[in-house]
Fold:
Amino acid sequence: MGPSLLAELPALPLHTAGKYVAAAYIVAFVIVLIYVSIMAVRLSRIERDLGELLQALDERDAGQEPREQVSEASGEVLSQPAQGVR
Amino acid sequence: MSTQTTASERTTLNTLKSTKPGLWATVSALLRKELLIELRTLESVPGMSLFSVTVFVIFHFALHQNTVSGDEASGILWVTLLFAAMLAVNRLFVADSDQGGFDSFLLAPVDRSALMIAKALALLIYLLVLELVAVPAFGLLLLGPSLGAAMPDLLAVLALADLGLALIGTLVAALAVRTRARDLLGPLLALPLLVPVVIGAARSSSPLMAAGHHGSMQVRWLMTLALYDLVFGLISYAVFDFLLED
Amino acid sequence: MYGRGLRALSFSTVAALCVAFSLVFFYAPLEAEQGFLQKIFYIHVPLAIITLCGFVFGAIMAIAHLRTGDQRWDMRSYVAIHMSLIFAVGVLITGSIWAKGSWGHWWVWDEPTLVSFLIVFLLYATYQPLRFSIEDPERQARYASVFAITAGAFVPLNFMAVRLSSAYLHPRVLGSTSNLPAKMGFTFVICLIAVALLYATLYKYEMTAKHTRAQLRALRRRVLSDETTAPRRSFQGSTAPGLRPSAPGGVLKMSAVRRPD
Structure:
C-alpha cells in the first residue's frame, strides 16, 4: 500500500490541504491557550489566598488594637498608684 | 510462612554480619534466600505458568483459530510471556516491603546493588522456569509449525529477552512497591519500557515460527536485544541505590 | 526569583513566533510532493524535537538532584517533564492531522517517529501518577528522579528500536529533515528557535507560579500559626500596623492582660 500510494499522491488541492494545515496550527495555539487559562485559574487562587491572609492579618490587628488600648489604659491605671506612692 | 521468611533472613543477616563479604557472596546469599522462599511458598512461578496456559486458551477463542504461525504466533507467545512476567514483577518486592526485609538488608554492611542483582537473577530464573512450561504448552495448543528445529535459535531469543524482562522488571518493581497503587503502577511503568524488548523478541522469533520451512533468524534483532539489556542493566545498577534509601 | 527576565523572554517568544510563522506561509516554497500540507512540518517537527530535548533535560536535572540532594533540581526536573508532556500532546495531534491529510488515516503505524512518540508519551504519562502516589515528599522526589533518568535513557533507545522495526516500509515522509532546500531549511531553523523559546517561556512561567505558591504556603503557615501562639512572639516578629512598640513595662502588662485567642 505504501509505495503505490506515495507514487500517486498529488499535491493536495489547496482548499483541502489548507484545512488540515490550519487545524494543526490552531491545535498548537489552543494547547498553549489552555495552558495559559489553567495558569490564570491558579493565579486567581493565589490572589484569593493572599487576600484571605491580608484579611486575617487585618482582623488580628483590629482584635489587638482595642485590647491594646484597654491594656494601656489599665497600664496607666496600674502605674498611677506607683506614681501616687512615689 | 512468615516465620520461615524471617528465619532465613536472620540466617542471611548473620552470615553477612560475621564477615564483610564481597559482592558475589552477597548476591548468592540473597539469591539463595529468594529461591528458597519461592520454593516454599510457590507464589510466583506456578501462578505465572497457569496464567500463560490459560491465556493461550483464551487466545484460541478470541482469535477463533486452531493454529497460528509466523508473526501472529510470535506475537501471541511474547504478549503472553510479557503479561505473565508482570505478575512476577508485582510480587517481586512485596515480601521485602511488607515484612521489613528492606530494613534488615540496609543494616547489613554489604553493597546495596547486590539486592538488585539478586532480585534480577531470581526473576530471570522464574521466567526461564515459566518458559519451560509455557513454550511447550504453546507448541502444543496453538502453534502450527513444529518448534523442534528452531529450538537453539529460540533459546537464544528467550534468554536475551528474559534478561531484558528481568532487568526492567526489577527496576520497576522497586519503584512501584512502596507507592500506593503498586499493582497498577508496576505494569504501567514496565510496559512502555519493554516495547523494544517485545520488538526485538517478536521480530526475531517470527521467522522461526513461519508456516512451512522455518526461516533463519536475523541477528540484528538479537543485537538490539543485547544492546538494550546492556544499557538498562547499567542504568538499573546506577540508580537502584537511590530507591533503597529511606 | 524565577520571574526575573520572564517579560523579556515572553516578548522575544512572541516576536520569534511571528517571524517564524510569517516565514512558513510567505517565504518557504511549496513542496513538490505534498504541496501545502507539508507546512505542518514546520510546527510538528520543532515541537517534537523540543519535546524530546525537554525529556532529556528532565533526566539531566534529575541526575543533578540525586547527586546534590537539592530539592530545586527536582522541581526543575518536574516542570521540564510536565512541559514536555504538554508539548507531546501537541506533537501527537499535529502528527495525526498530518497523517490524515497525507494518507487518509488518523493514525498510521508506518511512521516510526510518531509511534515512538506514542510509546514515550505513554511512559511519561505515568510520571505524575507515580509522584502523587508517594506521600513522603523526599522519597517522592527521589523516586521521581530515578524514573526521569530511566525514562530519559529510554527515549533514544526507543526511537532506534522502533525505527529498526519498520525499516522495510516506505520512506518516512513526516520525519525527514535531511536534504531540505535552503529556504525551507532556514524556515525550519527559525521555527525550531521559536518553539524552543516558547518552551523556555512556559517553563519559566510554570517555575515562577510554583515558587509563588510555595512562598504563599510558607507565608500562610507563619501568619496562621502566629495567631495561635503567644502574642509576644507575634509582637516581636510582626510589622503589622497598629501594634506600637511601647515601654518594657507596658509590654509586660500587655502580655499579662491579653490572652492568646
Remarks:
- Residues 2 and 8 of chain A are 10 Å apart (CA to CA).
- Residues 1-10, 82-86 of chain A have pLDDT under 50 and may be disordered.
- The two ends of chain A are 111 Å apart (CA to CA).
